[in-house]
Amino acid sequence: MRITKADVIQTAADIADKNGLSNVSLKVVAESLNIRTPSLYNHIDSLEAMLREIAHNGMKTMNERMMQAAIGKIGDDAIKSAGITYLNYMIEHPGIYETIQWVTWHGTEETGKIFDNYLSLLKTLALSCNFNPVNIDEILNLLTGVLHGYTTLQLRYAFTKPDEVRTSLSTALDTVLAGLHQKYDQHEKEHL
Hints:
The chain is mostly helical. The chain has helices at about 5-20, 25-30, 45-70, 75-90, 95-105, 110-125, 135-155, 155-160, 160-185, 185-190.
C-alpha cells in the first residue's frame, strides 16, 4: 500500500487523540504505518511540521463545524451553538485539540490566518447580537477566553460527563452574554 502525506498526518492525529500529544513521535507514526522512520521524510519535513499540519487541519475543521452549527441562528443562540460545537470538537479530538494549543506557541503565518478565520466567525456572530461594534475586540477577547479556558479546565470531566459539561458551558455562556449585553448592546448605548 502506498503511503501519502494525508495518511501520515491522519495517523499522527489518531495517535494524538488516542494517546495524547506527548506520545506522538516519528517512530510511533512510522510503526503505525508499518514503514521505517526515515520513510516519513518523503512526506514531512520534521515532527514539528507534522504537528503543525495536524493542528491546522484541526483548526480548519473546528472552524467549519462552528460555522455550520451557527447557520440559521443569530445572536446569543448562534454564539452558544458555536461554543458547544467548539467543546464537542475538543471532546471528540482531545489530542488534536492539544496540538492546536501547542501550535499557538509554535505556529506560522498560516496558523495566524486560520486563527483569524476563527476570530472572524466569532466577530460575525457577536455583531449579530447587536453589540456596539466599537467594543467588538473586547467582546472577542472575552468570548475566546471563555471558550478556551472553559474547555481546557473541563477537559478531564468532559469525557466522563459530557452532557453535564455541555450544560455547564451553556449556562456559563448565558451568564457571560447577559453581562456583555448589559454593557455593550448597541441599542442600549444609543438611548443613553
